[in-house]
Write a structure and sequence with these properties.
Elements lengths: L5 E2 L3 E5 L5 H8 L2 H4 L10 H12 L6 E7 L5 E11 L4 E8 L10 H16 L4 E7 L3 H9 L3 E11 L5 E10 L7 E2 L5 E2 L7
């Protein structure tokens, strides 16, 4: 699958390359990060290579990007649309920043999110983009509503942490029709939805 390059004021989203795998793996294995992800185990190099070959390169239902700094090309993290369902025109939204202990910041993460949403709604013609996070992930609880997502619901105490404590799973959703019509496009231009022909 040929991946597009998505460019914003400060970030560039590009295809993940083999050289990105080790820093991404090390960031994902940080205990303070790992608690926020479905994959709770330490990721080995073999697991990371398998993910790259079979999911990133081999699964047409997944579009994963490397997040890089536009200024110097430095790798910042990863993001993507997963579980892309063409029948129901939906996908799962995924993002994290590993460089400089960002995880979710107020500069690169919002720009990355807007690029990904615009790509999903305008290029892939999705109807709904959703995200599942855990109630301990306060950073994404701030980011997702800022991007336009609505808290659709929660599964109470559905996820068990390594400590043995159970936490709620929070489900956020954003419909194409609810994606703000007039919002700052990641490229810096104003994004306007075409006027209805009806």
């Amino acid at each position: 699958m040929s991946m597009p390059v998505l460019t914003g004021p400060d970030v560039v989203l590009r295809a993940i390359k083999p050289d990105d795998l080790e820093p991404l793996r090390q960031w994902r294995n940080r205990p303070e990060y790992r608690q926020y992800f479905r994959e709770y185990r330490d990721i080995t190099p073999a697991m990371q290579q398998n993910w790259y070959e079979n999911i990133v390169l081999g699964d047409e239902r997944v579009q994963m990007f490397a997040i890089t700094a536009r200024e110097d090309g430095r790798l910042l993290g990863a993001c993507g649309l997963c579980y892309i369902d063409q029948r129901n025109q939906s996908a799962d939204f995924s993002i994290y920043l590993g460089a400089d202990d960002f995880y979710i910041d107020q500069k690169y993460a919002p720009q990355t999110g807007r690029l990904l949403l615009t790509h999903g709604f305008e290029t892939l013609k999705l109807h709904r983009i959703w995200a599942e996070i855990y109630e301990i992930d306060s950073a994404k609880q701030r980011l997702l509503p800022a991007l336009g997502f609505t808290l659709d619901g929660r599964h109470r105490e559905a996820h068990r942490l390594e400590s043995g404590h159970f936490v709620d799973c929070l489900f956020y959703g954003l419909l194409a029709d609810d994606y703000p019509e007039d919002t700052a496009h990641p490229s810096g231009a104003l994004r306007r939805r075409p006027a209805s022909s009806g």
